[in-house]
Amino acid sequence: MNIIASYNSDEQIRKESSSGGIFSILANKILSEGGVVYGATFAPSDKWKVNHIRISDRKELWRLRGSKYVFSNIGSTLKEVKKDLDNHRKVLYSGTPCQIATLRKLFPDHPLLLLVEIVCHGAPEQKYWEMYLDELLKLEKRNLSEIKSINFRDKRTGWRNYCFTIQFIDGYEKSEFHGENIFMRGMLFNLTLREGCFKCPFKYPQGSKADITLGDFWGVKALPEYKEDNKGISLIIINSEKGEEYLPQIKIADKITFEQAVISNSAILHASVPNLHRDKLDTLINSKGFYEAIKELTKAPLKIRIIEWIYKNIYRHKRLM
Predict the structure, then answer these.
(1) What is the DSSP string of 248-268?
(2) How would you classify the pairing of strands 36-43 and 91-95?
(3) Are 25 and 249 in contact (CB under 8 A)?
(4) Whole-structure pTM value
(5) Residue 5 β-bridge partners
(6) Residue 186 in contact with residue 194, Cβ under 8 Å?
(7) pLDDT tens figures, 143-159
(8) 224-254 confidence digits (pLDDT tens)
(9) Which end of the chain is more exposed for a tag (fewer CB within 10 A), N or C?
(10) What values do phi and psi take at 103, rounded to 5?
């Protein structure tokens, strides 16, 4: 096991990526060797659902960058992977630990298959994403065809304080800090996650089936040689000899210990804990709608709301002056 912290030297790719842009380095290597890459993307023609797709052209790689906090539909990609492997093409497949475990079971130790998992907090169900988007568009008096792009981890306010942003084709933007966005609150409060996420058997290290594990290295301030720039830095855990083959492609910012890796990212080891009010969610949605249900179930205690109000209306205002 080799654990490092690193980032992509291409500033634009790093900006477009959720953390340090390491996935793009691995994908570019595979593509340069005539291989193909599979990952999650939005499907504008299918109500902006999140689906897994196959990429064979570098020009299309941007579609797979960035986190999509929805459990993706893998569709026919398993059959496509088999066809690629049968045709002796290298394949990089990225996804959640459970998705990667499926690939490992179907294609055990295949020499042409590189499996890359993301550190997973838990994945919201597609139905909640559809509910959120439907209500948002009604509030904004817009429709699906007007959406230009969606970014769950917009770094305009920094890697740590990222925004959720939807851009529309006429230039209008709906951008909110992740803690204020209704969909993100539902996920971060463990209300909209899939039932299986609370008993995930694929947590690191025993359950992981990936060659490489990628995530955010939130403990970056502990690195003495790295100057924090709030642009994003990745945690990379190399789990296999095949994964080691791709290590030379990555500029090592710092080698770190497993303890350093997990101290600020518990999702590496532990499944999410169900929200105590999770069983009320669907009933509240039926009576009040998605927005109001999430607001009610994630409402902070009065003391916390006062602190948040002070930060939003006084402290943050001063910082922007």
Answers:
(1) GGS-EEEE--HHHHHHT-GGG
(2) parallel
(3) yes
(4) 0.91
(5) 235, 254
(6) no
(7) 999 999 999 999 999 99
(8) 667 778 999 999 999 999 999 998 888 776 7
(9) C
(10) -65, -40
